[in-house]
Amino acid sequence: MQRPASFVVTSSNDMIKYLDMLLSAHSDTNSNVKLSSIERMENGQTGYHSKMAMPGRYGLGNKPGLRNVRLHGHSGNAWNFADLTYNREAGIGYYVATNCSYPIPKIRRLLNEFLLQDFKSKSDLSLTEDASLAKPFEGFYEVINSRNEHMLFFDKIRFGGELKVVDDKVLFDGGLKPREYKILSNSNPGLVSLSQHGEQFENQKYMASLSLMKDDNGDDMIIWDGGTSMHYFKRQSYLVHLFRSIGLFGSTIILLASALLFISAFVYQKIKSRTALGFEVLMSTMLLIKLGTMIYIFISKNPFELIALGEMNIKTVMFFLFSISFPLITGAFIMLVIKNFKEYKLSIKCVLFLNLFAASYLSYFLYSNHFIGLQFWNY
């Protein structure tokens, strides 16, 4: 699940040597590593954003930062935090490591402001007040890629958003919150590059944080720089997006509520010495337990639990078995309800219908996202 992520066990002294190598590479005669090799580290060569030579490309784990000058580097955390940042043109760089993560953004801002206070970027890119180039791309978009293949369903729900043009600005809310952008003056109808707009980004004129283009099939496409990865968006029906979102979370809530109602009804009928629901309660409860267990296993609380998902252990084997048995129990549940349908009261029929709809939708969800029979240890 976490592969091919990695880490380096090092010291501050060694990181200073590494920074010195990155900063001193001004030609291919560099004694350590050729400038062309370091430039390959700093610029991606795959994906639409690289093929179109968009300014600001994610390289080999080395990404440009969204600041008023191009800051390369990378950061990472697992309860602690480390950050490597540099700018060869300005000749500055720093490495920060802490045993916690929350103060790092503030520390980075202070370091950037101090180290770059007298530096002026040589970029000749500028922003335009004309947003008409973005007008043909207006509409609702949904993300089509993810850093983790099995998390794509969640990213589709989380990153869906609308792009629209308002006066001289382009608004896009596909990154969890609405953001304002302005078009870079070097844009054209084939590739509209935008820079995030606002007080914090007023001087950011060297790279695109959002780009609009058409893919190989001629479909409208948005490329959004998510910081540590590029998210690709394509136009999608908002109703389809809404149904998928409501269907997933609504079905989970319905399954939970139905199981609780069935259990309550079973207990009540037992107390009143009436004919109690039997297999219906058992199947509904089993479905809820299996779904809850799979969610618990899938949503890891820390990096070590995420790494453990790549091994064969009791959790991953349970996920494998539960994912297979969930649709099988759903099918048996449907057959049982059809067989005894005339015997149920109207209120029970309504609850059963909702329960079976939720279980069927969740079975389809597991199937369509390749969760059924998923062997994490072979992924």
Can you give a write-up of this model?
The chain has 379 residues and is of the alpha+beta class. The chain has ten helices and twelve strands. The chain has helices spanning 12-24, 35-42, 48-51, 104-115, 152-159, 238-271, 279-298, 303-308, 314-339, 346-368, and strands at 63-65, 71-77, 81-87, 92-98, 139-143, 161-166, 169-172, 179-183, 191-196, 210-214, 220-225, 230-235. The strands form two sheets. The chain has an eight-stranded antiparallel β-barrel. A hairpin with a 5-residue loop joins strand 1 (63-65) and strand 2 (71-77). The model has no long low-confidence stretch (mean pLDDT 81).
Annotation keywords:
41% helix; elongated; 379 residues; 12 strands; eight-stranded antiparallel barrel; alpha+beta; four-stranded antiparallel β-sheet; 10 helices
SSE order and pairing:
Layout: H1 12-24, H2 35-42, H3 48-51, E1 63-65, E2 71-77, E3 81-87, E4 92-98, H4 104-115, E5 139-143, H5 152-159, E6 161-166, E7 169-172, E8 179-183, E9 191-196, E10 210-214, E11 220-225, E12 230-235, H6 238-271, H7 279-298, H8 303-308, H9 314-339, H10 346-368
Antiparallel strand pairs: 1-2, 2-3, 3-4, 5-6, 5-12, 6-7, 7-8, 8-9, 9-10, 10-11, 11-12
Helix pairs in contact: 6-7, 6-10, 7-9, 9-10
